[in-house]
Specification:
Shape: globular
Family: Belongs to the peptidase M14 family.
Helix content: 25-40%
Keywords: Carboxypeptidase, Hydrolase, Metalloprotease, Protease, Zinc
Number of helices: 9
InterPro entries: Peptidase_M14
Distance between the termini: 37 Å
Organism: Rhizobium mongolense USDA 1844
Protein name: Zinc carboxypeptidase
Number of domains: 1
CATH architecture: 3-Layer(aba) Sandwich
Bound molecules: zinc ion
Oligomer: single chain
Radius of gyration: 19 Å
Length: about 350
């Protein structure tokens, strides 16, 4: 089966809402892309409301990573079909019985945004398979035009990397012509970024956020800004005393996270990894996102940072799943990776939905 194009992704969302009106609603996000596309999500659950306990799953932030949008459409289809027919779901040797499926749909809201960056996907699937950013035209430093912002460097968490990080300490660029890592002209400057912020703002019941990327394979939890530490709350991304030194693994600065939160995010990440292993035997790594490299302005850190930057906002635990081994695998690799993403995210829901989570 070929990869879904963006029109097919939108059609799938429409079909879910029409076929399962009691269980699924289309959510049209407010900000059009530079090429005037509407970004669409689907909310799944018996009770779909702003205050319902919610997990948000996002894919397609990076255009060339073709599997995550297909996997998230597949997850929505599987979940709706299994719940409606009163069955369980199997991915390889990972099995979710019908009561687990029922309790996820009965007791939670799952908001799935399969393709956050449709302009990028269209460009990647038709012009340049290696395209990662969105497609906004921007003036470069020489007065010419370059295209695209890396959405996963554009969120408002330590976005100004030259201020917050040590020189060379972070995977980011302020050159609009950088093919992969341009952070954008301002924090949350991009429609695609603001759509995800809007979801978090409008769904205060959200407790969990998973951004699905490819391809390492790995499951990452907080933080991506710097190495974790649980001893000194003063060492945190909001404290200007540590500007200019973040992102270096070999210094004394570490990003603060409470022991409770660190235990929780580790155990949720491990639950995803364990479910994946049973699909086809692959061994995903688990760890803080910083183990890959330091990131500024990334979605997972932004989601978790919100309750710290603006006290009063609910806490959202943020994750990045890096599925599979290739950006655009062949049919068999695609199918296996889709099953791994579905298994991981349902295991994640099962865990947050269980009484001991
Ligand atoms: Zn990515």
């Amino acid at each position: 089966m070929a990869y879904l194009n963006y029109d097919e992704i939108v059609s799938a969302i429409q079909i879910f809402a029409e076929r399962y009106p009691a269980l699924a609603s289309r959510v049209s996000l407010p900000n059009l892309t530079a090429e005037s596309r509407r970004v669409e999500a689907v909310a799944i659950g018996r009770t779909r409301s702003a205050d319902q306990r919610t997990a948000i799953f996002v894919g397609g932030v990076h255009a060339r990573e073709w599997v995550p949008p297909d996997a998230l459409v597949g997850l929505a289809a599987d979940l709706l079909e299994a719940y409606s027919s009163g069955t369980g779901l199997r991915y390889g040797s990972t099995y979710f019985d019908k009561s687990t499926i029922a309790s996820i749909v009965d007791d939670m809201q799952i908001v799935i945004l399969p393709c956050a960056n449709p302009d990028g996907r269209v460009f990647s699937q038709n012009v340049d398979g290696d395209w990662r950013k969105n497609r906004r035209p921007l003036l470069n430093h020489q007065g010419g035009v370059c295209h695209g912002v890396d959405i996963n460097r554009n969120f408002d968490v330590a976005w100004d990397f030259r201020l917050h990080f040590a020189p060379g300490g972070v995977s980011a660029s302020d050159d609009p012509c950088h093919k992969y890592l341009y952070v954008g002209p301002a924090a949350a400057s991009e429609s695609e970024t603001r759509n995800i912020v809007w979801l978090l703002d409008s769904l205060p019941g959200t407790g969990w956020f998973v951004d699905v990327h490819s391809a390492i394979p790995a499951v990452f939890h907080s933080w991506g800004l710097d190495s974790n530490q649980t001893a000194d709350p003063e060492q945190n991304f909001l404290n200007p005393a540590f500007d200019g030194i973040r992102g270096n693994p070999d210094d004394t600065y570490g990003e603060f996270i409470t022991e409770v939160d660190l235990d929780t995010v580790r155990s949720l990440a491990r639950a995803m990894k364990d479910a994946i292993t049973l699909v086809a035997g692959d061994d995903y790594s688990v760890g803080p996102a910083f183990e890959l490299y330091a990131t500024s302005g990334a979605s997972d850190d932004y989601a978790y940072s919100r309750h710290l930057a603006r006290p009063g906002l609910p806490k959202v635990l943020g994750f990045t799943m890096e599925c599979g081994h290739e950006f655009q695998p062949d049919d068999s690799g695609r199918e296996t990776t889709i099953k791994e993403v579905c298994a991981a995210l349902l295991a994640f829901c099962g865990k947050v939905n269980s009484p001991d989570a």
